[in-house]
């Protein structure tokens, strides 16, 4: 058995009680033959994983699929400029016990994931304020431990504790990631699906849809990718999420209106919207 299969069977044997509700559903389709196993390799080697890719490329789905394959609960943190140490580690609160007010510490997602050996998914990690995340450095490198500044507790991570982060690189409003933080991760590009893999996703998500509709969406997706590569459309124009939304809407309305609402109206420039509509029109029969 390979290292990966060995680790999968080991982690799967654990039981997680009520936390089982936090196990992901899976369903990520990889763009090639190696990305999925390459990511699992980093996880079993206890290296933090950084998923780099545009919005709606399946990064969250991929993290959920890692959670599913190991049957391991996933704690999620969504970063924003307001994210502070308390949102990551937890906070103190007053509770009543035997008629007395006592201070208790409510553990946050990082502490829980470290202690229970869950997967910690940190979405949009580059959106957090530069001063917030260094608190994680010692948990992310070979030390795999942290001193909780709120309680003074020294936490040694459970052997299964794994970290997956995601970043929308180049997305407006995102700062580059702090170098010392980035240095602790193994980074994987997560592109939009194309070709056969995209068709596989459509066939799975829309088994009832007509071949004509699926063919329209898949041709449109290919054209959008081409124009993104040519620099004529912004990357989110080819977002798989938006294309899936458009296909779902098409069950209830004309597909041209569906792609207009789900994709065109969200593009910033009128020139982009026009180009998009021209491309869509060429595939509408
Ligand atoms: N390769 C893929 N395999 C399976 N589903 C995918 C894939 N790519 C996109 N999707 C689907 O597209 C939608 C968006 O995916 P997801 O939320 O994982 O994207 P994301 O990269 O995390 O986006 P964001 O950066 O905006 O958070 C979901 O419905 C997801 O199932």
UniProtKB/TrEMBL annotation:
<dbReference type="Pfam" id="PF07728">
    <property type="entry name" value="AAA_5"/>
</dbReference>
<dbReference type="GO" id="GO:0005524">
    <property type="term" value="F:ATP binding"/>
</dbReference>
<protein>
    <submittedName>
        <fullName>MoxR family ATPase</fullName>
    </submittedName>
</protein>
<feature type="domain" description="ATPase dynein-related AAA">
    <location>
        <begin position="48"/>
        <end position="185"/>
    </location>
</feature>
<dbReference type="InterPro" id="IPR027417">
    <property type="entry name" value="P-loop_NTPase"/>
</dbReference>
<dbReference type="GO" id="GO:0016887">
    <property type="term" value="F:ATP hydrolysis activity"/>
</dbReference>
<dbReference type="InterPro" id="IPR011704">
    <property type="entry name" value="ATPase_dyneun-rel_AAA"/>
</dbReference>
<dbReference type="InterPro" id="IPR050764">
    <property type="entry name" value="CbbQ/NirQ/NorQ/GpvN"/>
</dbReference>
């Amino acid at each position: 058995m390979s290292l990966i299969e060995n680790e999968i069977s080991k982690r799967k044997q654990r039981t997680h009680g009520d936390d089982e509700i936090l196990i992901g559903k899976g369903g990520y389709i990889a763009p090639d033959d190696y990305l999925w196993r390459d990511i699992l390799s980093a996880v079993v080697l206890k290296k933090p994983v950084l998923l780099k890719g545009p919005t709606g490329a399946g990064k969250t789905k991929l993290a959920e699929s890692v959670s599913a394959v190991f049957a391991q609960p996933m704690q999620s943190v969504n970063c924003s400029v307001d994210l502070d140490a308390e949102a990551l580690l937890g906070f103190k609160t007053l509770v009543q016990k035997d008629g007395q007010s006592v201070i208790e510490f409510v553990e946050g997602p990082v502490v829980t994931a470290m202690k229970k050996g869950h997967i910690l998914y940190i979405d949009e990690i580059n959106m957090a304020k530069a001063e917030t995340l260094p608190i994680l450095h010692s948990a992310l490198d070979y030390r795999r431990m942290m001193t909780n500044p709120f309680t003074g507790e020294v936490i040694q991570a459970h052997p299964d504790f794994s970290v997956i982060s995601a970043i929308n690189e180049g997305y407006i409003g995102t700062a580059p990631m702090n170098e010392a933080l980035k240095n602790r991760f193994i980074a994987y590009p997560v592109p939009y699906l194309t070709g056969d893999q995209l068709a596989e996703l459509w066939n799975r998500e829309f088994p009832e849809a007509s071949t004509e509709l699926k063919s329209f969406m898949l041709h449109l997706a290919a054209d959008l990718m081409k124009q993104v590569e040519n620099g004529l459309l912004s990357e989110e124009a080819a977002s798989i999420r938006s294309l899936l939304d458009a296909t779902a809407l098409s069950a209830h309305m004309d597909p041209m209106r569906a792609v207009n609402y789900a994709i065109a109206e969200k593009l910033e420039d009128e020139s982009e919207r026009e180009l998009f509509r021209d491309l869509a029109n060429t595939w509408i029969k």
